[in-house]
Each structure stands twice: as C-alpha cells, then as structure tokens.
Amino acid sequence: MKPLLRAVLILDAVLLLAFGLLFLLTPWTSLYNALQLVQTQPALVGQGFGVALIGLAWLAMHASIDGALTSSVAKVVGHVNWLTGVLMLVWLLGLHTPALTGFGQIVAVLTGVVLLLIGLGGVRLASAVRRRERERLAEAAAAERAERQAAKDAARNAANRQEPQPLTAGFPVYHPDTAVAPAVTPATSYPVVDEANLTAAERAKRAERSARASASSAASSAAAARDDARNAAADAPGGPRPPFHG
Q: For residue range 108-118, what is the model confidence (pLDDT) as tens digits?
C-alpha cells in the first residue's frame, strides 16, 4: 500500500508543479488568453501563489522518496488538493464566477474533479499506511518486551538452579554420609615347613630343641612344685617358722 501512496505523491507533485508554473507565469497575458483562463490580478498575488505551489510540489516529491515523511506529507497534500477542488467546483458551478467560455469552463471543472478525487484518495491511503505503521511498531515493541521478559525468566531460572557454594574458610568439609573403611592389618604369614624334605641333621636339631624345651618345662614345673610345698608347710599350724631376726 505504501508504494501506491508514493505513486499518488508523485502525481500530486506533478500537478502542483504544473499549477505553480502556471501561476508563476501570471504576467504572460497571451498564454492565459490562449488557454481561455482568467488572469490573476494583481500579478504579484498569482506569482506568490505559484511559488507556494512549487514548494509544495518539491515537498511531495521529497516525501515520495523519504519513507519517514510519506504518510504525513501525503495527508497534508491530499487535504490541500481536495479542498482546492471543492472551491473550484463551488465557484465555477455554483456561483459561475469567473465567467469562462465553454472550453475553459469544462477544463476548470475537470481540473476541480481531478483534484477532489486525488486529494481524497491520498488522504485515505495516508491514513491506512499510518495505521499499518503504528500496528507494526506496536507488534515490534510487544515482541521486544516478550524477548526481554523471556531473557529475565531464563536468567532467574538459571540462578535458582545454581546451588550455593559452602564457605569452608580453608577447613576441610565434613561429610557425615561418608563412611571410613577400617584399616585392616594384614595377618602375619609363617612359612610352612615340609617335614618330608628335612634332612637328618635338621631333624636332630629339631629333636634336641624339643628335648631342651621339655627339660626346661619339667624343671620349671619341679621348682614350682617345691615352692608350693614350702609355702604350704609354712602356712600349716605347728609347722616350722623361719628364725626371727631382730
């Protein structure tokens, strides 16, 4: 729709430029007579109006290129065109002023109708384009707000999922669920002696050591028996007592 509005602005610029040049040439009497038009009096007013129309034509052409000015300028130019067309129709058809010949009156009426149609069409198109631009801006703003909210929610969820780190201050962290395995002391292993592989000398040595151990055990047992007998005799009533030493 905006390209169509640009085309309408170019058409407005051409029409405004043509009317501006025509009014700028107000002192050219032969030209107005050939076109069967009424010459503006005084000529200064006509030339001033022509300069204003040329400036408006330049603004319309510039707005057809610059997208930021398209809808605003098209709305203004459209209002100027249809109001000018209405004025021309009222004066020419209602008041029959100025008095023109048949051809001049037809040209003037057609010009007023063209200005009216182009002006109203430009205003409607400008309003539609402006409304669509506002909707597009609102959608972009809503999408941006939704994106920011999604980013905030994602950051908040990430912060909630992150667990706080304990402050140990250089001390080891105690974990009560960790079980410490008891130290197992390996059992002392002794070499197994194979009796069949021992020599006669080794067997004699082992027998001698066994005999010595048996004799020592017997002597210890005999000494213990004597000590027990002596203690028993001393503890019996009427038994011998050791001499008293003063």
A: 788 888 888 88
